[in-house]
Amino acid sequence: xxxxxxxAYHKKKYLQARFRFxxxxxxxxxxxxxxxxxxxIPNNYVTITSGLLxxxxxxxxxxxxxxxxxxxxxxVFGVMExxxxxxxxxxxxxxINEVSEIIARTVFNIKVNETTRKLxxxxxxQSEELQxxxxxxxxxxxxxxxxxxELKRTNQALEQQIEQVNHAQKRxxxxxxxxxxxxxxxxxxxxxxxVSPSLQRILGYSPEEMIGMNDIxxxxxxxxxxxxxxxxxxxxxxxxxxTIQFSYLxxxxxxxxxxxxxxxxxxxxxxxxxxxNSRDITERRKADKExxxxxxxxxxxxxxxxLITRFNKEGRVFYINPIIETYSGHQKDxxxxxxxxxxxxxxxxxxxxxxxxxTVLTSxxxxxxxxxxxxxxxxxxxxxxxxxxxxxxxxxxxxxxxxHDITERKMAELEIQSKNRKITESINYAKRIQGxxxxxxxxxxxxxxxxxxxxxxxxxxxxxxxWFMQKGDDLYIAAVDCTGHxxxxxxxxxxxxxxxxNIVGSPDDxxxxxxxxxxxxxxxxxxxxxxxxxSTRDGMDIALCKINLKKxxxxxxxxxxxxxxxxxxxxxxxxxxxxxxxxxxYKGRTNFTTTEIGIRPGDGAYFCSDGxxxxxxxxxxxxxxPKRIRDIITGNPDxxxxxxxxxxxxxxxxxxxxxxxxxxxxxxxxxx
Length: 672
Description:
The protein is α+β, with helices and mostly antiparallel strands. It folds into four domains: 12-127, Beta-Lactamase; 178-286, PAS domain (Beta-Lactamase); 304-405, PAS domain (Beta-Lactamase); 438-671, 4-Layer Sandwich (Phosphatase 2c, domain 1). Strands 17, 18, 19, 20, 23 and 24 form a six-stranded antiparallel sheet that branches. It has a five-stranded antiparallel sheet with strand order 7-6-10-9-8, sandwiched between helices. A hairpin with a 5-residue loop joins strand 6 (181-186) and strand 7. Helix 11 crosses helix 12 (512-526).
């Protein structure tokens, strides 16, 4: 900012004073856009000059910014500084503020008017210069117009001649591009000298790609001989035309069939080559093939034992094969062009055909159904396949019904179903018998309050079974795994069940190993495996415990099955002997071993059939494995048997997932 006017101020050297925004009181009032009133005036700040009073120091300074609103923003146009002999009153300050707004608006208007005036003067000068330039341009334009009119007359004549030539060339180009044939000219060495533009539309190659090459490389190997023969005959007999057919490779990798007619024009100076006209006959060959196939299908249909009928969308018959005469007793001509309701067939047959036709038309898909078909040869059962047939626009225009007589098959199926039902009933009855004689969780818990039996037969009946007996103070409990599963396994399990009852029920006080020795003898004798010519190899694996809670002893013996015993938080695995009960003669077989364990409160015993560790599943479809069983036992030391039962069940089902159960599963757990 610079000083532009003053009153009662005589210091000439400050009359051209300049201030920056925020510099001094003037700059501070301008940047803050606010009025400043000061009464503490330094002695050398400013004086007021008067003719009567001379120079006197003011008592009050008032600095007012000149502010007005431009657009939506406040703008400072200057600052007025007042010095007074007395302090300015509030009324004086308000008055000065109001006057400052008027002065600011006036300054703004003056600046706008001055700018407008300068722009107007500049516009007038530019207008005068433009008028002078336009006059010069007008004169030049008149001269150019005369020259252009002469050139135009000359060009029009030339353009007419060029247009006539272009039209002739375009007509020829369009004809060549849209021709149904490809015209190719070969020189005497069979190199292409010319090929028509229709090549790109038909085969995908541009003419530039083909000129100068021998295109025999695109001919299928089975057609190369025909092409060679055509050129040879044209060379030997130039007055003849030769026509051949061959498969040709398109640019997109597809193959099309071409029919080519060659003419020798080597002696014509305007052509000097062999002209070959080729056309795409792929669709024609397909049509011929389809016609042959339709003829073959017609012959098959006429002689088919299946009833074949074709309906249009309105249900009118426009084809039916002769077998209808066997089923209806009427000639096939009696059915042609008849609506479904007009057919001389049983009402039930007509109604079923109507429903199937409507389903095909609604779903636009093939429909298969079985239906009863009363006929002149008796009541038959038909397997009907209704197939939609589409036109070129992919719209269903007819439905083909193929009805296959499955009466004999249905009778066989019914007989099989009847036999299966009887077998299933027998197996279910065997399940009830097996379930009635085997111990369950309730029976075991009467003797062992903290115990469980996890039992999962693979089939209805099982080859695995739990066995329990109490004799005096001795408690006998076993997990038995018989050969096989299902009905064969269940039969072996009954042999084992009753043999164990007889052995343990005898007056003899036997150890666990002696019980298994006698069981082995009983199975071998019962199944007659003691003969050298015996063909049966059935037997069983077993884990047997003889428990006396008064003496706190547990005697264990096993055939192929271990005992997992937990004592003082440590897991002890006692393996069974490595030979089964029964199953024929085994080398190195000895008597079964008895292992005695002293029972302490809190001990736990677990034994199971091999169906548990051998179950396939998991992310890599592997066996569950004995290690996972041991991990579950050692990983849950504080759980009771009901909780561990649930853990084993959940882990087994999670591992199995959607995999089929491999074998019968049996696990027994007891906590003392």
